[in-house]
């Protein structure tokens, strides 16, 4: 059963209160969101980053500084307030000319009203355009700033492995978008509203007397007190709502990625019940946000006008003048109330922005910690251009020792096969070699080429990308950085043939799958129309290629790069023995020294030594 309580009923430490939301794995603890007005510095930090980070639009041909757009939006809102004032007086002027049967004045006023309405429409459209432009730029700036610090070597994997920050993808793709959508309007209203309130307070006083604005002020002072008290609560609810959104989305991603397995095992009913648990948690937090953002509204202006009328303030006026005054005073007091209401709504919206800002800055803080903690000083350049591990000890983040006192030299041409039971630490050796996991002891010596390790790694999971066959083979190198030539095309064809994917070069293979929704459409930077330059989305590649074909395409990257050393982590597990033998034979002919992680006995003949990883840090090395 889901526990929807934001706070556990049992006593907890004042320093670390824990909110438990029961999901599929029982009670999942997360630090409870707590905010006070010091949390405003998070919002200030986000705004500051938006206004100062300039890399996002350096290449844009029509460059408008976001600060300039903000100033234009502010001026546009000021102009709209003036236009709205004259527009609001039109009804009182119409009452006057209609009740006095002033035909000439009526037509003049009609032309005037059309002109004012057109100005209002233009200013409203202009402000919407400026607001939309600022939103798009702010989102782009914040997203690129975050991604620049997130998608970095040793940071991307560490953040997702440690799982200290929930759903970083949601924070980047959704929270930033929601914050960008409204933060400029909040700032603009905050700046303009005081001036508007002062002006309409004076105008209301002149028409209704002091009691008119005084009544409105008293009413909204009480409302403001409640609003101020609710800001931390609403921000906390928004934070928890966004977290629940992320867990709900991730559950659907899991169902999508495991659809076949669920169908094989008849797990549809179970999957439906589990995802409904997440939906109920999401509903709970969504409901609390709605409750705490219920709007405040009052027909206060009509009460103020009624007092003035029944008190005889306008008895000396004729009926048409009374109608004019009543309409004008109604507009003035209503606009004053509207301005106050906007302030309260802005406070509610600001609470949401603080919630989004906290989630974004939490991600920034964690990325900064990881960046500062990254230390690859244990990786050194090998003077002999070989791979050497010296007294290496590797442990999990929890402190469990996986490898202890590993000293090993892998000479050029001396292929190494790494075996062992699941979870013993085979892949952890690769993580240590590339700097993802820092060993607790020891050093690693690697061959370098052009300032980077001359080592290529194929992970267990096949990595397909948006683009063509050529894009798949050259990844992570971009085709835009490669000079297109006949030699390049011939090299691509030869590699594709070597790994046994010649059928992918036939036009009829692609003819059967080409549809508008499958072709990955973006502007190509070369004119070659050969089949290996036809671009598709990565999902299309996943759909049209079998697991074995995907592995062959991944292996083609080694033939393209021709590194001194290559690490293959279960990279032939989906291949038949003959294809596996062909590919290993060709790689050895290219003088690529191979380090393979596999359980297949068929691979032993291609390796000079076998490193067998055992439990509790033990290992053995056998010659083959």
TrEMBL record:
List GO terms (cellular component aspect): peroxisomal membrane
- CDD domains (UniProt xref): ABCD_peroxisomal_ALDP (cd03223)
- Any one Pfam family match given in the protein's UniProt record, by short name: ABC_membrane_2
State if Lyase is listed as a keyword.
Answer: no
Molecular function (GO) terms for this protein are: ABC-type transporter activity; ATP binding; ATP hydrolysis activity; long-chain fatty acid transmembrane transporter activity
One BP annotation, GO? long-chain fatty acid import into peroxisome
Q: Give me the segments passing through the membrane.
A: 68-89, 109-130, 181-202, 214-235, 289-314
Question: What are the protein's UniProt keywords?
Answer: ATP-binding, Membrane, Nucleotide-binding, Transmembrane, Transmembrane helix, Transport
Ranges for domain ABC transmembrane type-1 come to 71-352
What InterPro entries has UniProt attached to this entry? AAA+_ATPase (IPR003593), ABC1_TM_dom (IPR011527), ABC1_TM_sf (IPR036640), ABC_transporter-like_ATP-bd (IPR003439), ABC_transporter-like_CS (IPR017871), ABC_transporter_sub-D (IPR050835), P-loop_NTPase (IPR027417)
What PANTHER family does the entry give?
A: ATP-BINDING CASSETTE, SUB-FAMILY D MEMBER, LYSOSOMAL COBALAMIN TRANSPORTER ABCD4
Spell out the family assignment given in the record's similarity comment.
Answer: Belongs to the ABC transporter superfamily. ABCD family. Peroxisomal fatty acyl CoA transporter (TC 3.A.1.203) subfamily.
Could you identify this protein by its name?
A: ABC transporter domain-containing protein
| Organism expressing this protein natively | Smittium simulii
């Amino acid at each position: 059963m889901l526990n929807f309580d934001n706070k556990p009923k049992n006593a907890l430490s004042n320093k670390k209160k824990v909110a438990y939301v029961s999901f599929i794995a029982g009670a999942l603890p997360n630090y409870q969101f707590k905010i006070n007005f010091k949390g405003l510095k998070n919002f200030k930090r986000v705004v500051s980053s938006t206004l100062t980070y300039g890399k996002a639009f350096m290449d844009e041909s029509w460059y408008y500084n976001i600060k300039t757009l903000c100033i234009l939006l502010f001026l546009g809102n000021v102009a709209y307030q003036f236009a709205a004032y004259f527009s609001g007086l039109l009804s009182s002027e119409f009452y006057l000319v209609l009740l006095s049967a002033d035909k000439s004045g009526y037509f003049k006023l009609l032309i005037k009203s059309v002109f004012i309405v057109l100005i209002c429409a233009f200013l409203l459209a202009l402000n919407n355009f400026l607001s939309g432009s600022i939103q798009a730029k702010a989102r782009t700036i914040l997203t690129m700033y975050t991604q620049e610090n997130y998608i970095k070597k040793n940071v991307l994997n560490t953040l997702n492995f440690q799982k200290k920050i929930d759903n970083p993808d949601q924070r980047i793709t959704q929270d930033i978008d929601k914050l960008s959508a409204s933060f400029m309007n909040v700032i603009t209203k905050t700046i303009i509203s005081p001036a508007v309130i002062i002006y309409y307070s004076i105008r209301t006083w002149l028409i209704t007397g002091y009691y008119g604005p005084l009544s409105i002020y008293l009413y909204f002072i009480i409302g403001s007190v409640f609003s101020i008290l609710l800001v931390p609560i609403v921000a906390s609810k928004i934070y928890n709502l966004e977290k629940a959104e992320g867990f709900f989305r991730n559950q659907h991603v899991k169902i999508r990625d495991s659809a076949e397995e669920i169908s094989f095992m008849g797990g549809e009913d179970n999957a439906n019940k589990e995802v409904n648990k997440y939906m109920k948690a999401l509903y709970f937090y969504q409901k609390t946000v709605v409750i705490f953002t219920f709007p405040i509204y009052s027909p206060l202006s009509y009460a103020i006008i009624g007092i003035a009328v029944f008190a005889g303030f306008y008895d000396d006026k004729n009926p048409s003048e009374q109608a004019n005054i009543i309409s004008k005073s109604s507009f003035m007091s209503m606009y004053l109330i509207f301005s106050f209401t906007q302030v309260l709504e802005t406070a509610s919206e600001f609470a949401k922005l603080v919630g989004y800002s906290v989630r974004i800055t939490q991600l920034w803080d964690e990325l900064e910690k990881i960046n500062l903690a990254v230390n690859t000083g244990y990786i050194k350049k090998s003077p002999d251009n070989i791979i050497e591990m010296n007294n290496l000890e590797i442990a999990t983040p929890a402190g469990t020792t996986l490898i202890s006192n590993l000293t090993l030299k892998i000479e050029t041409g001396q292929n190494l096969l790494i075996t062992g039971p699941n979870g013993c630490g085979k892949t952890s050796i690769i993580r240590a070699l590339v700097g993802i996991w820092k060993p607790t002891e020891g050093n690693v010596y690697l061959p370098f080429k052009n300032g980077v390790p001359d080592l290529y790694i194929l992970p267990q999971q096949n990595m397909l990308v948006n683009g063509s066959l050529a894009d798949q083979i050259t990844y992570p190198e971009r085709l835009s950085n490669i000079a297109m030539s006949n030699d390049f095309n011939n090299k691509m064809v030869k590699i594709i043939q070597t790994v046994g994917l010649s059928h992918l070069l036939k036009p009829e293979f692609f003819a059967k799958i080409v549809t508008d929704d499958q072709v990955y459409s973006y502007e190509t930077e070369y004119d070659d129309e050969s089949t290996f330059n036809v671009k598709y989305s990565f999902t299309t590649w996943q759909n049209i290629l079998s697991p074995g074909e995907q592995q062959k395409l991944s292996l083609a990257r080694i033939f393209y790069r021709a590194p001194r050393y290559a690490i293959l982590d279960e990279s032939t597990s989906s291949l038949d023995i003959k294809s596996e033998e062909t590919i290993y034979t060709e790689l050895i002919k290219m003088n690529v020294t191979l380090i393979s992680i596999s359980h297949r006995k068929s691979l032993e003949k291609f390796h000079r030594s076998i490193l067998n990883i055992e439990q509790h840090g033990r290992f053995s090395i056998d010659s083959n």
